[in-house]
Amino acid sequence: MSDQPVTVIVHLRPKPGAEKRILELRPLMDAEFAGTTTLSAQLFKVEDSDEWRDIVVVANREAVDKTPQSPYYQEWKSLVDYLKFEIIEPVTS
């Protein structure tokens, strides 16, 4: 496994009426994950779409496979429909 940071691009769609709560949960999740294998996370809305992207950088490939068990994350999962996960790793020689 690579020791390099790995980026995960999560394609998601907020469930109807959940947008406000998702935005409230985000800083709580960021604080909870600070100091863990999550190095950074940023949420984006896709222009002219109801889809969002969550760009998360984790310490290494092994960290991608560890599903957070925090209560905030569990609530977050109930408020979104996951459409696709893309894992991108640095190209090294």
What does this structure look like?
The protein is α+β, with helices and mostly antiparallel strands and 93 residues long. It is 30% helix and 35% strand. It has 3 helices and 4 strands. The chain has helices spanning 19-33, 61-64, 71-79; strands at 6-14, 38-45, 52-58, 80-88. It has a 4-stranded antiparallel beta sheet with strand order 2-3-1-4. It starts with 5 loop residues before the first strand and ends in a 5-residue tail after the last strand. The mean pLDDT is 88.
Order of helices and strands: EHEEHHE
Count of DSSP E strands?
Answer: 4
Shape: globular
Identify the strand order in the major beta sheet: 2-3-1-4
Sheet/helix structural class: alpha+beta
Beta-strand portion reads: 35-45%
Helix share, percent: 25-40%
Radius of gyration: 14 Å
End-to-end separation: 15 Å
Task: Write the SSE topology.
Layout: E1 6-14, H1 19-33, E2 38-45, E3 52-58, H2 61-64, H3 71-79, E4 80-88
Antiparallel strand pairs: 1-3, 1-4, 2-3
Helix pairs in contact: 1-3
